[in-house]
Design a protein that fits this description.
single chain, alpha+beta, N-terminal domain of MutM-like DNA repair proteins, 4-stranded antiparallel sheet, 10 strands
Length: 300
């Protein structure tokens, strides 16, 4: 599933192509929102909010209210850009939203969430209004994110699951939750209540730092030679190494050489990766968290 840095780049590209231009043609999937309502409207803004993309359109010349197109890409969705008349890389039957201007065509493929909302109603949207602070905001509210993460309702939740809860903090996904826990030497199965406030604060700040470091480069990396991470680590012989633990189950840890482990957790059975040596469980850690992991409530 695309994470906050991917959505930030997507919004940046679409903003450069579309902002300030008028919609010449628009269509969606059968049974979906009536995107034809956007024809003739000017595209005012394109922004990412956590893992969500919002595209704002001016009010209609007939007095119709301003509208916002909301998409969430889920596991397989993506936005593509084309020149008018250029062949698409995806089949037309997969297109769930198509916006055409005089200079560009923006196509959203395979997204499970595509909806047209009156812009004035955005503060009432049940999902968007519930999002936690966006860690890729111009000035991320890390204090508010820390407060939500430490809420008693999440006390028994494994920290690896809590970091995925978009109502606590928005933008981190499956890759970053594993990488953030590794960088801070935290066992992802440790319940939130077992972690000192200082550790929770470092997890939030590291999450924001890693997202910021990767927001402009699709070659996501968390290794210290690129983002100034843990000192004293020699990766000069591993030039291709870009991630600490994610996707590396059964391979040696870059830091200590122990074999990376992985397991699925939470209602969506997302796979988490960790080093059993660098992230040794503290008191009240993995055993206590195992039951919570099987029945967790993290939201994507």
């Amino acid at each position: 599933m695309p994470e906050g840095d991917t959505l930030y780049r997507t919004a940046s590209v679409l903003r450069r192509l579309l902002a300030g231009r008028a919609v010449r043609a628009a269509r969606g999937r059968p049974g979906g929102p009536s995107l034809g309502r956007l024809v003739g409207r000017q595209i005012l803004a394109v922004e990412a909010r956590g893992k969500h993309l919002l595209m704002g359109f001016a009010a209609g010349t007939d007095g119709a209210p301003a509208l916002t197109l909301h998409t969430h890409l889920g596991l397989h969705g993506s936005w593509h850009r084309y020149r008018p008349g250029e062949p698409w890389r995806g089949g037309r039957q997969r297109a769930v939203a198509v916006l055409e201007t005089d200079t560009s065509v923006a196509v959203c493929f395979d997204a499970p969430t595509v909806e047209l909302i009156e812009t004035r109603a955005l503060p009432l949207h049940p999902v968007l209004a519930a999002l936690g602070p966006d860690l890729l905001a111009a000035v991320p509210d890390t204090s508010a994110a820390l407060g939500r993460l430490a809420d008693p309702a999440r006390a028994a939740m494994p920290i690896g699951e809590a970091l995925l809860d978009q109502t606590a903090l928005a933008g981190l996904g499956n890759v970053y939750r594993s990488e953030v826990c590794f960088v801070e030497r935290v066992d992802p199965w440790t319940p939130v209540r077992a972690l000192p406030a200082g550790t929770l604060e470092r997890l939030v700040e590291t999450g924001a730092r890693l997202l910021l470091a990767n927001r402009d480069d699709p070659r996501r990396t968390t290794v210290p030679d690129a983002i100034g991470g843990p000192a004293g680590t020699d990766l000069s012989r591993r030039r291709s190494a870009r991630l600490w633990v994610y996707g590396r189950a059964g391979r040696p840890c870059h830091r200590c050489g122990a074999l990376i482990r992985s397991a699925t957790a939470g209602p969506l059975a997302r796979r988490v990766y960790w080093c059993p040596a660098c992230q040794a469980s503290g008191p009240g850690g993995r055993a206590e968290a195992s039951e919570s992991a099987r029945s967790g409530a993290a939201r994507d």
